[in-house]
């Protein structure tokens, strides 16, 4: 069984902001695969889907970004899902817009949502997909809570799709194969 967690902030004012790309990836998969994430539990919205013989729980924490670990640990504990079967999808300023990076484990990279998840899980050994949003030209808070430009939006839509496909590839093909396939993804080249 897998737990796929897309990070973001709840509420209309945060829709389509840079910090909410994790939510967007869950929404993309929900639309593509046809599962519903409107049920509320574990401090978030969640849905279930069976894929390649595996039950997958998709979760969008509604605890606000900095407390994402509270929602994740509740779901992981309830379903008894080990850290290595958890995939977290989130925004990353260290990666340029239009690129994604898959990793089998790692640090929080200064991301408050990831700090909280690592603290609650007491492990860094969970898979992650980082969706690049580029470096903040101004205040980090204003930047991550800001909306994408029209040009960025085109790249992010492709990144969200690639990240969603990356989630399913991790589950079906394993992290190494998924990394080989998606760590070279670049929406900028893709659109030329």
UniProtKB/TrEMBL annotation:
CDD domains: PTH (cd00462)
Record site: Discriminates between blocked and unblocked aminoacyl-tRNA: 9
GO molecular function: peptidyl-tRNA hydrolase activity; tRNA binding
Reactions listed under catalytic activity: an N-acyl-L-alpha-aminoacyl-tRNA + H2O = an N-acyl-L-amino acid + a tRNA + H(+)
Catalytic residues identified in the record: 19
Keywords: Cytoplasm, Hydrolase, RNA-binding, tRNA-binding
Binding residues for tRNA: 14, 64, 66, 112
Site description Stabilizes the basic form of H active site to accept a proton, residues in chain: 91
GO cellular component: cytoplasm
Entry-linked Pfam families: Pept_tRNA_hydro
Listed EC numbers: 3.1.1.29
Localization terms from the record: Cytoplasm
Known partners and oligomeric status: Monomer.
Family note: Belongs to the PTH family.
Function: Catalyzes the release of premature peptidyl moieties from peptidyl-tRNA molecules trapped in stalled 50S ribosomal subunits, and thus maintains levels of free tRNAs and 50S ribosomes. Hydrolyzes ribosome-free peptidyl-tRNAs (with 1 or more amino acids incorporated), which drop off the ribosome during protein synthesis, or as a result of ribosome stalling.
Designated name of the protein: Peptidyl-tRNA hydrolase
Encoding gene, per UniProt annotation: pth
């Amino acid at each position: 069984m897998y737990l796929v967690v897309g990070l973001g902030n709840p509420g209309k004012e945060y829709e389509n902001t840079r910090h909410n790309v994790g939510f967007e990836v869950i929404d993309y998969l929900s639309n593509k695969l046809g599962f519903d994430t409107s049920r509320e539990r574990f401090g978030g919205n969640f849905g279930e889907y069976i894929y390649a013989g595996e039950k997958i729980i998709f979760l969008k924490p509604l605890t606000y970004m900095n407390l994402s670990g509270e929602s994740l640990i509740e779901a992981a504990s309830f379903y008894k899902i080990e850290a290595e079967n958890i995939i977290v999808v989130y925004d990353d300023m260290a990666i340029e817009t239009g690129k994604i990076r898959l990793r089998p484990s790692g640090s929080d990279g200064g991301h408050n949502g990831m700090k909280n998840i690592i603290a609650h899980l007491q492990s860094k050994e969970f898979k992650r997909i980082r969706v690049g949003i580029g470096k903040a030209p101004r205040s980090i808070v204003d930047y991550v809570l800001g909306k994408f430009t029209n040009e960025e939006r085109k790249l992010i839509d492709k990144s969200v799709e690639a990240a969603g496909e990356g989630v399913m590839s991790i589950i079906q093909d394993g992290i190494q194969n998924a990394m080989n396939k998606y760590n070279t993804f670049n929406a900028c080249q893709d659109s030329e």
